[in-house]
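Chapter review: from sequence to fold.
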Amino acid sequence: MPQTPDIQKGRLSTQQLAQNFEDIHPPLDYGNAILEAQRCYYCFDAPCVNACPTQIDIPSFIRKISSGNTRGSAKDILSQNIMGGMCARVCPTEVLCEGVCVRNTQESKPVRIGALQRYSTDWLMEKGDMLFERAPSSGKRVAVIGGGPAGLSCAHRLAMLGHEVVVFEAREKMSGLNEYGIAAYKTVDDFAQREVEFILSLGGIKTQCGVSLGKDLKLSELKSEFDAVFLGIGLGNVNQLEIGNTPLGVFSAVDYIEDLRQASNLENLPVARRVIVIGGGSTAIDIAVQSKKLGAEDVTLVYRRGPENMSATNVEQEFAQVHDVKIRTWLQPNSWLVENGQLSGIRFEYTELNSSGKLMGKDEFLELETDSAFLALGQKMMHKIFELELEMNSGKLAVDENGATSQSGIWAGGDCITAGKDLTVHAVEQGKQAAIAMDQWLRN
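The token string follows.
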């Protein structure tokens, strides 16, 4: 008799789930924040500033923490990165600011820049301090398509500069992947929506949720109705495996993380006893770890190249292994193993690099049994949503150094552009820089 796949709800109690999904990096209290800030050398020409995509003056904001000027510290951060609170939680600081901290050469332990950034921004938001003011009205109106990090960053900067902004979002909530695509243990207590409220408190920004480009909105109509348009639409579609018809039991990691983030009761989420995750990025790590935290007993992450080639950082890989996720590399999916239409396992082929550096199969195989599989293979652009011709590059929107597309009056930023990277901090910077360029264009 074939074994019935073991996929169930409620593997763990409410109490166990609450513990498993607690904040993985509890915030610093006042005393520890002061002690940590005092570890900073306050370097002139600090390498951490150059490593930050939004160019936050890190020595300045840390020095202000140490002197008790927390509001000034938060202003240093948020003036450059309006989503500094979320970035403090989700940025791979180990390969950005903290990765180049001078303290690494002294004691192999960088200043905890991310934790200090969270301390300042959380303090400001808890105080309800508005911090920013709008410039006099310019009389110009801008449409922002997409309420994710790029769109919200662009909208906030445009509103500060005196323009009226309308943000159109396809989903029910603003904040994009910050709300729907990040592991639940990284951003607790509905922080994504609290950050949205803080951004919108500036004024001059209206929002419309549940409307999508290509379905409810036409780019040509927005272009004629508004003085300028910003596209922060993300990618939308997920990549699939081309190894035959997908059986029951194979899920999109992106979709499942969204379900988890929006679940009111984690006990209602089904999770398999045995899970295989295919992919090598942050999403693969997130779904693997969250499967363990939901009660999966055996979780294996499989990647086709070596660990050094994974887009997930070494810290993320170690985090997964600490949570008992097995990571197997140099294996690529070859075929599904199916019983009665249900996934029962996956056949993998061992891989290697040939003399020219191209990934090749070795014609040697390994079969792994499983109850379910998650695909975390990245995302791709939705091309059919534009009725206007926009230049593309490598499957994404082509833009210049200021985010301008090939259509006059239309800018873009975030994952949908060629220069886009799968990091909130890059999207925030692209939205900000596009807003500055749009402001100059609108006024001229």
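Two observations follow directly from the output. The chain has a mean pLDDT of 95. Residues 181 and 254 are 6 Å apart (CA to CA).
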